[in-house]
């Protein structure tokens, strides 16, 4: 396993741990899972981000929005405030450029090695594959600005009543202001 993969796993573990801890700290009745989609006032799909459900009592539960859809397990039944956050995706474009530049450099090195009849290191080939995969995934995730009021529990106008079992909220449409 290369150091980048190890770092990626560590970052994912750090990001996912709070979600697991929040979910395990909930008491009372919970829905098996809450699903739905998120779109802007203009009908643009919120392709990625985080959605959190804040019950009247107890800890919030947070899940991921991916390709416009979310599925959040163990949301407390009853009334929940809903917050949505996408700011962490603002710099994805910069990271994509770094990946693309690194991939371009490696491809030039590979072409030069081939031209000189030299073997190109397997670790570099694997890194190129990983960079291509990351770039492909990044194309599926784009930053969509969310009005400030949806980011904070005390300001969000979104309130839902969650019932037990699997619960589909359908489409959550955010207004522009």
Structure explained in plain terms:
The protein is elongated, with a radius of gyration of 21 Å. α2 runs antiparallel to α3 (122-139). By secondary structure, it is an alpha+beta fold. The chain has three helices and seven strands; from the N terminus they run αβββββααββ. The chain folds into two domains: 3-88 and 150-173, Immunoglobulins (Immunoglobulin-like, Sandwich); 92-139. The protein has a seven-stranded mixed β-sheet with strand order 6-5-2-3-4-1-7. The longest helix has 24 residues, at 92-115.
Give the proportion of residues in helices: 25-40%
Number of helices: 3
The fraction of residues in strands falls at: 25-35%
The named CATH superfamily of the largest domain: Immunoglobulins
Strand neighbour order, sheet with most strands? 6-5-2-3-4-1-7
Largest sheet: 7 strands, mixed
Distance between the termini: 46 Å
N-to-C SSE series?
A: HEEEEEHHEE
Shape: elongated
Calculate Rg over CA atoms.
21 Å
What's the CATH architecture name of the largest domain? Answer: Sandwich
Average of pLDDT: 81
CATH fold-type name of the largest domain: Immunoglobulin-like
Our count of domains comes out at 2
Low-confidence stretches: 2-27
